[in-house]
Each structure stands twice: as structure tokens, then as C-alpha cells.
Amino acid sequence: MLAPALIPEAPIEIFETHFSSDFHGSFPLYLTPSPEVHMKKLIAQGSGDIFQISRSFRNSEQIGSQHNPEFTMLEWYTMGGDYKTSISVTEELVAAAADVAVAAAKVEAGAKNPPAQITPPFRRMTVQEAFCEYAGIDLAEAGGLAGLKEAARKIGFSLRAEGETWEQLYHRIFLTLVEPNLPVDRPLLLMDYPRQIPCLAKEIPGTPWRERWELYLGGMEVANCYSEETNYHKVQAFFHKEYARKASSSTVVPDIDEEFIDIHKTGFPKCSGVALGIDRLVMAITSQSSIEGVIFFPLSDSIRP
User: Fold this and answer.
1) Distance between CA atoms of 301 and 142, rounded to whole angstroms?
2) Per-residue pLDDT tens over the stretch 104-125
3) Do 166 and 203 fall within a single domain?
4) pTM
5) Which of 101, 245, 250, 261 has the highest CB neighbour number within 10 Å of its CB?
6) Are β-strands 25-31 and 15-21 bridged in parallel, bridged antiparallel, or unpaired?
């Protein structure tokens, strides 16, 4: 969980610590926000299909019903697959976990808020469909920043005076109008994210979208999936652009992991990766209203008066 360098991702703030030794000196180390950086190095060495359950750490995020700076993540990669391949595995996993919760509730006398059965297939909706339905904005038609601002203005959405990027405006609209209104009657796969949101997911040729989905349970985002980008030049460009973004806005900026970039030089295998928050999954399938109900020592307990 300690790394000397990481994948730079501008929206994710990092916990920094220091290694100190009489023999090796002192240098910074970083708590990993996901196990991706190490898992992909194993994939490049021929691991094949791979999974890991590990602690992950994210700084500067809110502490509340769905967030804790330290959390448990299940991440897995399927060789030869894409983001659609990963849907069936995810559906089966979540349904099986829910079955266990339902069975446990049946033997627990007087269980409150008994969990509901979860049955595949899950509902599917594209980000484009969600924005049209809940925000009245056609993202494909809006195009770039000027178009998105005009679309937001037409629906009466507040615009900031200056400096807001396409990505920032998109996220404000999504968090204000779209995510709170997503259907909650059954699990939802929100698919095909805009390519303007930088990440290591492949672009869908001839479209403004990327091969990415997120899983929502009861309106809460639980998992994130990509068709993993394998092109060396695109990975390299992503790293250096995101590093520049972090350097301009973050107090902790880990070095670029050049070894991670280099594993894509010689033909990184086609694969799909899924990162699933275990704590949130347990929340959803046991009908808990707060992540505090499934983590023994949440940070909120330590900082409360």
C-alpha cells in the first residue's frame, strides 16, 4: 500500500508519508488510492486474470455517509475483455453477495430494513441518456465548453463568472441534476462517459464517449469499470497532462511512475478492469444508511467532539 510513485489523477488527493533509515536515507512514500499501479505491472509480466482486495486511501474528500479516507476496494482485471465483458461478472458478484445478506437477515430475529433480492440483468443507461432525461442537456449536441455553457444557461443552471472548465461544469451539472435523480428501483449501470473526462479508458471510435461504466446501487456509486487503455503514447500523454494538472492545484504531487508507462511499450494486453468499493457494497446489500455502519473505526469517530 506504500508506493514511491503513482498514477497522477488530478481529482484524487494523496496521503504522503516518509521512509526514514540510517542506511537508505529519507524519502517520500504515498498511500495508494487503488491497487491499479501494482496490479497492471503484474499483468504486464503475464499474470493473466487477476484480483485483489486491499485498503485504499484518498485525501481531501468529504467525511460522511458514503465516504471514509481509508476504505476497502476489490479490483479485478479480465484479460481479453472489454467494459461490456465485465458487466456479467459484476452482476453475478453483486447478486451473490446480496443473496448472502438476504439469507443472514432471515435468521436474524427482528432484522430492521431487511435487504432486497438483487437479480440480474441490471438496468443500463448511457450518460448521454441520463443528461437528456434529468438535466435536459444533449451532451453530444453541446460539444465543447461554449456549447455546454449555452445548454446550461438555457435550463437556468448557474454559471460561474470565469475559469470553469468543461469538466468542472459537467460535474456540477451531474452532481446537482443527474445523479440525485437516477433510478433506484434496481441496480443501474451508467455507461459511456464523455471523453473530455480524462482517464485510462479507451475511446469509442467515431463517438465523443469512452468505454466506461459506473454501477449505482440505490443511487450510490459502488463500482467503476474501464476497457483499459493499452496504447503507449496515449498512456504517456495522460500521465504528463494529469501530472501538470496536479502540480498546479495539489499540495502533494507524487513523482510519475515511469515504469508504469514503460510497461505499455511492448504490447500491454487487452483487458477490462473493475474497481468496486467493498464498504459501499456492504452498505447497499445490508440496507445501511451510512458507511459508519460497516466500518469498525471510521475516521468520523476520531474527529467528532
Assistant:
1) 44
2) 877 665 556 666 679 999 999 9
3) no
4) 0.94
5) 101
6) antiparallel
